[in-house]
Automatic annotation (TrEMBL):
Listed SUPFAM superfamilies: Formate/glycerate dehydrogenase catalytic domain-like (SSF52283), NAD(P)-binding Rossmann-fold domains (SSF51735)
GO molecular function: glyoxylate reductase (NADH) activity; glyoxylate reductase (NADPH) activity; hydroxypyruvate reductase [NAD(P)H] activity; NAD binding
Designated gene of the protein: tiaE
Pfam families cross-referenced by the UniProt entry: 2-Hacid_dh (PF00389), 2-Hacid_dh_C (PF02826)
A GO CC annotation given for this chain: cytosol
Gene3D superfamilies: NAD(P)-binding Rossmann-like Domain
Organism: Cupriavidus metallidurans (strain ATCC 43123 / DSM 2839 / NBRC 102507 / CH34) (Ralstonia metallidurans)
Record-listed E.C. numbers: 1.1.1.26
Designated name of the protein: 2-keto-D-gluconate reductase (Glyoxalate reductase) (2-ketoaldonate reductase)
Transmembrane regions: none
Amino acid sequence: MTDMKPSILVTRAIFPDVIERLAQYFDVDDNQEDLVLDSGALRERLAGKVGVLANAADRIDGELVGALPQLRAVCNMAVGYNNLDLPALTAAGIVATNTPDVLTETTADFGWALLMATARRVTEGEHYLRAGKWERWSYDMLVGMDVQGSTLGILGMGRIGQGLARRAAGFDMQVLYHNRSQLPDDVERSLNARYVSKAELLQQSDHLILVLPYSVESHHAIGAAEIAQMKPTATLINLARGGIVDDAALAAALRARKIFAAGLDVFEGEPSVHPDLLTVPNVVLTPHIASASEKTRRAMANLAADNLIAALDVGPQAGKPPTVVNPEVMARRR
Ligand code: DGY
């Protein structure tokens, strides 16, 4: 008789070789059909499972945690983990992990792409051309805002924020930032970045990029009152999470030209997008793809799998998941 393997759930389709790797240790309930599991389906599929490889869109809340006494590990394939009720997981002794570092540079690259596209009206230009509106050259056709030589504001100076600051050096930009805590002097010097208050950041940035985590505190960190403090020539880029920006207020501000333009990769209530954002011309919209390069998505899936295998005390790193967000649970287990 063979030993029964512990059961886990992988909530969405991922690379088949990652499923195979997990199957060496676990009985894997996969979802390679890629059905979106609502909270009822998630609860049903998680019954009897000891671990889950989740996606940032899977809400694992206190109620679900309470209904799953056998659950021991929740491993997000995302650096953000606002989909998890961390206090509830920690109280229940469930390890939670994320996928930092492996996506930093790819996400910062995309932030740069969104900044350039927004400031220089790249998608608007393409729509104009495809619509057959391009009849002749004119001095003021689709003029935008310069990126080189301008002032970049970064709200949230973690790994991705620092990646953006490094890129800004090549564009001869002045870098300002605001963060929960100020960076050490040597890091600030190496990034050529200056800490300012949130109000100064709003008032002085030519381009403001949001890369802070979503939480109750950062909900609507940028709403009508904040946008009113920005320059009318400024651009706003949201690379972080929907809900940090009040999307309705932003759409109204864009329509009234209170700021020049916005670039958004994340939305409140995504994959739904506020209907007003779909009709204003001065916004670049992308479907939450900042970390979407082949190499990075593979690295994220493998790191999430490494975490799950180790958190469930098997594999080469048994008991030592590499990127835990509630280390107190691991400490209690020892
Ligand atoms: C992340 O890793 O948090 C990205 O936003 C993908 O969800």
